[in-house]
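Retro notes - structure team

What went well: the batch runner handled both jobs without manual restarts.
What didn't: labels got mixed up in the shared folder, which is why I'm recording both outputs here explicitly, each with its sequence directly above its tokens.

Job 1
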Amino acid sequence: MAKQKGSDLLLKIVSLILSFSLWIYIINVENPIKTMKVYNVPVRLENLENITEQNLALLPNQDIMVTLTVKGPASEVYRSVASNFRVVANLDDLPLKAGINEVPIEITSYPADLDVTPSSNVKAIVYLDDYLEREVPIVSQFDAVAADGHYVAGTTFNPASVMVKGPAQYVNQVKALAARGQREGLEENYKEILSLVAIDEKDQVVNHVQFSPLYVEMNIEVFSTKSVPIVVDTAGEVPEGFELLSTSVAPATILIAGPDSLLNQISEISTEELNLSEINESGDHLKRLVIPEGIIAVEGNSSATVSLVLEAFETKTISKRVTTIGMAEGLSVTLSTNSVNIVVSGPQSALDEITEESITAEIDLTGLQPGEYELTPKIVLPVDMIEVSVNPLVISVTITVEGEEELPPEETPAG
């Protein structure tokens, strides 16, 4: 069995040698005429300026190649590779368009023993697009971080925009040219020259476009900061019958930034005017902050909430004993009533605290001689209390000399 397998292998080797020898003989001795295709032969484009003159642009990433049919002696045909051929496509004076263009080729160099005539009708496929120029802004993607107590107020570029050129399908993708970088601990204005990159709406890089300049001068403005209180600007008085118990504002302070010449002049930030005469209940009022020109609210605050607490007035009746003052020595006084009923009005919280002792009701007898008088007591109320009425409003006062009895009225004799 092993002997039989050895004989078969030897037979195969001999057959292979004979076949190869025959092929060598045919190629080198007989050398018949053969036809073969040569694939992926690169094409060189000439007179590219004709593309620009027709307001078109060559699309990128094109491997412009053709397939050539060659004919000749087998020994030459089988040795043919793409690098043996030089193929050009002359764009001069050709009518071109956006999209697919079939351009005639010319085979300017090839092995002398080969015939490439069958390839004369082969065309190179060239993809073009409309040429577009568009001005786009420069945007900052520069991470500028201010030092403590400072604020990055803004970034400007010189120039502020750049012209982007190239195939329309790529130029139309460009949203802006981004200046990228990073800098920390800024305490003063900062300047740097940065390279630019074209980006789309998703901030992805757009390739295959041209723009000039490639670099831009960036200027960053840095301001000092300080915290100042927010004050409420009010006008008018709360309507009659109400008392304003408290006013507060949130936030109570605001962090601002600006040039030192302006910042040093500001000690507070006020709200827009709040008209108290239009308010008749407690509540919150959103008011715009009045930020001076040239000053920046660091945290973006543009308004504050003003909280007002109002209390409606109520009434209360208090009986108060009437006292006299200023009576001369040696005189005595008799009042038609020793007390008055006083109706007072004020906030309920204040009314709850008021007592007879906190009110005075006095009749001033200074300089009065013995006799009868009709006098009005002077009522003094606590702060925030309003006198509504006093009953009786007028008291009959009789002043006599001490020790003298008050005589009854004389009777008129009967006629």
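Job 2
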Amino acid sequence: MKFFRGFLIGLQFFSAVPITKQFPMDQVHLKRTIQAFPLQGLFQGLIYSFLLYLLLEYTPFSHLAAAFILWLMTIVLTGGIHLDGWMDASDAYFSYRDQEKRLEIMKDPRTGAFGVMSIILLLSSRFLFIYEITENAHLMSFILIAAIPFFSKAVMGVLLLSVQSAKREGLGFLFQNAAKLEALWIYPIYLLVSVFLLPITGILLAAAVVCLFYARRKVIKWFGGITGDVLGAAVEGTELILWMTVWLLHYFVME
């Protein structure tokens, strides 16, 4: 029951799913939320895959229209929470200031030019990948699409508990205080099951691992640790790489 509550807490925080029930915000439930991150991502990915399947099989919409609706859903379903982190982290990084100043920039509610340019680049690239995947979609495409947020949320959980917090406040610090790295013992089970049942997802797993190690090094160097915005940026960056990986698979493996 606590695990399921943790799953729902994660949906409340990191999606636009209208869950109005109040849940306990103690360490036990927040720990379960972190353990359920990949399942929250899988839930999100299944919605993407099912939506695309319905659009392609049961509507008269063109591939372009279907791709646009799916692209829009990737924004609407998350409520834009991770995109906000991507813009704030981009503004901070491209300021080329010291770590303390970058943290101050991320707290500024205003969005700078670099944040705007980075979000345009992110969303336009994602649309390109989605559109060309949609044009050549088959059964394996839907499986891979469902796996994208599954792996990105796993990266978020590992970063959260394996990198120190850059500041003693905010959403990242709240979750980080609820659990230790040992709480992620369930993640390898998730990942092994996914690769055992669907070996092709191992390619996405490999890409996600590369993103994880790169993010860990750069987060510490650029920001001195994680924050809620940095985690959001890591999720968006990882998902972009995974969308690109699926796109490339359609060109070179699944022709």
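One thing worth noting from job 2: The mean pLDDT is 91.
We'll revisit the folder naming next retro.
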